[in-house]
Batch of 2 targets.
Target 1
Amino acid sequence: MVLDGHDPLAIARAAQALADGELVALPTETVYGLGARADDDAAVAKIFAAKGRPADHPLIVHVLDAADAAHFAAQLPPVARRLMGTFWPGPLTVIVPRAAGVAAAAAGGQASIGLRCPAHPVARSLLAAARSLGVRGVAAPSANRFGRVSPTQAAHVADEFEADLLILDGGACELGIESSIVDCSRARPVLLRPGVLTLAALEAAAGEPLTSTENEAANDGPAPRAPGTLAAHYAPRATVRLFDTAALADMLAKQWPPGVAVYSRTALQACGPDGTWQRRMPDDARAAAQELFAVLRELDAAGAQQIWIESAPQAAEWDGVRDRLSRAAAAFNEPVSG
Ligand code: TXA
Ligand code: MG
């Protein structure tokens, strides 16, 4: 059931549910999360079961502040402290060494743990109310079934899970793509997943360059350190194909097949025939990120078989959007989807 996240009674009820080891879906400024108390392995197991996500994939633990973060960490490396100091509360997850015996299931058995302090007022109210009931952190992956597009509205969450799931409605997420993840548990910080924070902003706060990612993450062995880094992730049902501006125009000039939705920044010359769809992507990277997953869901729901998308610009502020687009497109070039 969906409850108004701005209603104090709903917050109290959801906090009690978390304390009792039940699942609660909560809004954050990035995407909606599917939460359980992080210190309760049985509660965390319900997340993996509901998502259909392998239990060795680590989850992010959401905390109210740096003091609660310290509870889950063996230590907070200086680079993690600098990043937290700059971006918390906000769309940044740090991976740090995990405190012994704490939140093992949430960490997917890793020796490290992902920590994030969200800025969304509903998430903060919930974390504060839960803390007063003894809950120091809430493990919450994105509230979608494994491999699907992350939800950015309460209705998206309701579409994915059983009707009895308690969902706090906090409106449409302001940022729309998942947090930037920086692994601070190694000798050098590694950007595991880009978000809306630019690499330059992260490096300025970190005080050192960040290594980036994919090969690093892949080198860690068969269990990916971050499922969001699997190539085939964040996929709608429709097949996603990416085109540069000229290639898209060429394709459409030849034929705009029925069942094809086009999502482009450039205005199109032509209109498609019946049974096609057309959406304009905003020119602004933030605005594009904010609506991206909702648009993919809408086009899926409308019945599109394929979504042809104009590639995002190379500029740094588009890194997060480019990453999600290429993963959505990769899903259909690979045998296994995440
Ligand atoms: O914006 C977000 O980060 C959203 C909201 C709900 O906070 N959460 C989210 O969670 O995207 P999830 O589980 O879908 O993706 C989090 C990523 C996963 O790919 C997970 O494996 C990675 O963080 N992660 C968590 N703990 C980790 C660890 N100890 N080592 C490496 N990666 C970790
Ligand atoms: Mg996810």
Target 2
Amino acid sequence: MDRTKIILDCDPGHDDAVAIMLAGKSPKIDLLGITVVAGNQTLDNTQRNALNVVQCLGLDVPVYAGCGQPMIREKMTAGDIHGKTGLDGPVFEPLTRKLEPEHGVNFIIRTLMESNDPITMVTTGPMTNLGMAIRMEPRIVEKIQRIVLMGGAYTNGNVTPAAEFNIIADADAAYVCFTSGRPITMVGLDVTRKALCYPSIVERMDKVGNKASKLFVDLMKHFCKSQKEVFGWEGGPLHDPITVAYLIDPTVLTTKPMHAEIDIRSTQSYGRTNCDYFGYQKKEPNADVAIDIDVEKFWNMIEEGLRLYS
Ligand code: BDR
Ligand code: CA
């Protein structure tokens, strides 16, 4: 079976951790490396969290630290949702796994340049690392098969009415990626808000009874509690792993080609992904924007993903 080669660029983050989990053992995915960015928490936190997750799951995948700051703007974090560590909840064994010495941006550039096959870039945090890589070595662009990102919304944001966290946290980097000319699949809040991890889902995954399901449950207990405190929702939206689920089985999402532009100019709508749903502007679509999700299929995929661990 041909496996889709991916680099997962993330800012763990509870839902990022589940994205790693889903990609880590899938027979359909060849996870070449994990690059980490500041986002949900500072880079010190997110890189340690990524290492904890791969160590806990026993995944033999290299982890690289990338950028600790957005391209231009001041750093923002999401401690209200993900806690002080960025991954509050689970208690991990002492960390023995180490970061690779290469910078995450250099790893992205080197891997793409040396690869004979196209590589899919999956981003589940601010797009700083990929944006920087594209600016540093524009020849990588043609090697990117597709950019699949969790970010944005064609409806409402979650940081401002206009903007979603991953985009507003580094809108300039998102702008670089969205104007790269490579195919984009935008998995935004419009669909991720439908994948609510209710207590019944947590109970269901708990029954899997292995180390991955234990981690999932420990993560989701904290994540759902903070989603309730911040947004008043009963179940937390499990945003990030939907990108990986889509690569495993694209039928989990319904997408629509649209022209999508990142707003890096206005004040109130800064960081908005302006998606021309109705094609008013007659511009060539540059993104397949997710407009619906088969929620039942998604949870089945999460359960199957957890069962791949011993
Ligand atoms: C995104 O922001 C982060 O808090 C989550 O990990 C997800 O990537 C949702 O807006
Ligand atoms: Ca994330």
